[in-house]
Amino acid sequence: MPLFNRVTIVGLGLMGGSLGMALKRRRLAKTVVGLSRTPATLRRAKRRGAIDVGTTDAAHAVRGADLVMLATPVDTIIPQARRLARHMKPGSILTDVGSTKIRIVAALERSMPTGVAFVGGHPLAGAEARGIEAADAHLYDGAICIVTPTPHTNRAALRRVEQLWRPLVGRVVRMSPREHDRALASTSHLPHVLAACLVRAARPRDLSTAAPSFREMTRLAKSDPDLWDDIFFTNQRLLLGAMDQFSRQWRALRAMLAGSRRAAFRRALAQAKRTRDAIQDR
Amino acid sequence: MPLFNRVTIVGLGLMGGSLGMALKRRRLAKTVVGLSRTPATLRRAKRRGAIDVGTTDAAHAVRGADLVMLATPVDTIIPQARRLARHMKPGSILTDVGSTKIRIVAALERSMPTGVAFVGGHPLAGAEARGIEAADAHLYDGAICIVTPTPHTNRAALRRVEQLWRPLVGRVVRMSPREHDRALASTSHLPHVLAACLVRAARPRDLSTAAPSFREMTRLAKSDPDLWDDIFFTNQRLLLGAMDQFSRQWRALRAMLAGSRRAAFRRALAQAKRTRDAIQDR
Fold first, then answer.
1. Fold identical between A4-175 and A179-277?
2. Which residue blocks in A49-188 are alpha helix, DSSP H?
């Protein structure tokens, strides 16, 4: 018996489309419903096996769903959730894949209609490509999915959301929304800003012979500016903090290099290597 | 008929070992001789098909060689080259794979014994792993190899070095030593420093749930500190210049974020994306 009778995915881009494909592949939902503004996207999602049924009618899409997954850009999640929750049935769950969590969880968790529970989530997976054509049934394989409960979170709903993700990812981790946004500021948003700066700092003439290390360190700059601009600004304060933490290390290393303090510089590199070697690559 | 009768590779680590394997695979040299201080490395190199003959005797290794390739760490190349050149035959070529070129070319090009020509080179390939066990016949496939002639470079020797690399890499490019070191400061040395800073800026508790983007942006921090410390300090001035160029972009983006200048921030991201999208990934 599938884990869910009816799951509705709102937004059929890379994240939502890939989730649909993974749910279908693992037979975790009897019916996957897709909601999109664009009929062509619904047709493509159906052709790619990401959804069973597609609709452009929001009320129709979520009525009868046991779980509704919001997979639209981060700054659309709050208004979307409010609009959709009105049509959801008692006992159903609303959750999301948004890249920042403080605002979304604060805005939604305690404003749901009676009987509807909101649970914040964020699977750490992605690619610079967008849209249903880039969707991949294996996008979430081995990934970490963070769920962000608070003292107000409905525990049964939280467990159901964890049950949904557990078969699809490598590990499900609980964090407070604040812990999540702080961690992601350092480990995701900051790297994206660095990649953009690195591209902007290079002389055009050097790009045609760029070393492989440069291509690797700037791949994130291919990400969609509209999507990431929203993420950065919804996490503005914590991202500024992460940038300043980086700046302190940066200035320290620059001073060692400028001052020809080789032993200190080498120790700093060695410490970074030890720390990085301890992180498991997949 | 092979391109070279006898090629000697000095240093059988990742770079030298991989070159030997590629030369053998493509039958570009009748005999590949390996020089290493460590007999066990010579045995491993032979077992891996990187060399035909191995020796720990420097004079013996280079005597009779048509081309000698220095593939030892960047700060050992100058003294090694001077020691070895004395034993090389007239008409032979000494070249290297060192990651910085100004000092090496300046020190060596005009100080070779009569009849021996030095040509600076640098194939843009590598990995964070070291040693003959990490060597790979395909390490250089598709890579860019930079050769760094000056007005003093023997043109026939330059063409021979280009002939050696051309079948092994994707593209051979000529640059002056200064152009090379400036370009690599921005596109290789700077990214390595950034990766180390990014690791050092992260809170330890965030590392266990680090997003894939963080792992990608810090992989370079796994590089060997001794090797890279040498590279950074032999290119100290130009690397400081590249770091300062990065700092200007960094401060500009930080100011846009702090000042909530969203339109400017988004334009900067979009410009970085356009630039990065134009770089071909392999």
1. no
2. 58-62, 77-85, 102-108, 155-165, 177-184
Residues from chain A that touch B184, judged by Cβ atoms under 8 A, are: 211
Radius of gyration of chain A (CA): 21
Beta-carbon separation of B281 and A219 below 8 A: yes
Per-position pLDDT tens, chain A of length 282: 789 999 999 999 999 999 999 999 999 999 999 999 999 999 999 999 999 999 999 999 999 999 999 999 999 999 999 999 999 999 999 999 999 999 999 999 989 999 999 999 999 998 778 899 999 999 999 999 999 999 999 999 999 999 999 999 999 999 999 999 999 999 999 999 999 999 999 999 999 899 899 999 999 999 999 999 999 999 999 999 999 999 999 999 999 999 999 999 999 999 999 999 999 876
CB spacing of B268 vs A173 below 8 angstroms: no
- Phi–psi pair at A13, nearest 5 degrees: -90, -150
Question: What global pTM score does this model have?
Answer: 0.91
Which CATH number does B4-175 carry?
3.40.50.720
A173, A203, A239: residue with CB nearest B186: A203
| Sequence ranges of the domains in chain A | 4-175, 179-277
How does pLDDT run across B243-274, given as a tens digit for each residue? 999 999 999 999 999 999 999 999 999 999 99
- Helix residue spans in B166-235 (DSSP H): 177-184, 190-201, 204-207, 212-218, 225-234
Q: Which residue among A143, A211, A220 sits closest to B217, beta carbon to beta carbon?
A: A220
Residue of A nearest to B215 (CA): A281
Say yes or no for a CB contact (<8 Å) between B191 and A202.
no
Nearest to A269 among B126, B228, B253 (CB): B228
Structure tokens at A81: 């959730």
Quote helix, strand, coil % in chain B, to nearest 5.
Answer: 50, 15, 35
B214 closest CB neighbour out of A188, A243, A246? A188
Contact between B247 and A246 using a beta-carbon 8 Å cutoff:
no
CB-hemisphere CA count at 13 Å for B87? 15
Please determine, looking at this structure, whether the domain spanning A179-277 carries the CATH number 1.10.3660.10.
yes
Quick check: ipTM above 0.85? yes
Q: Which residue, among A216, A187, A209, has the nearest Cα to B127 in the 3D structure?
A: A216
**Inter-chain CB proximity B269 and A229 less than 8 Å:** yes
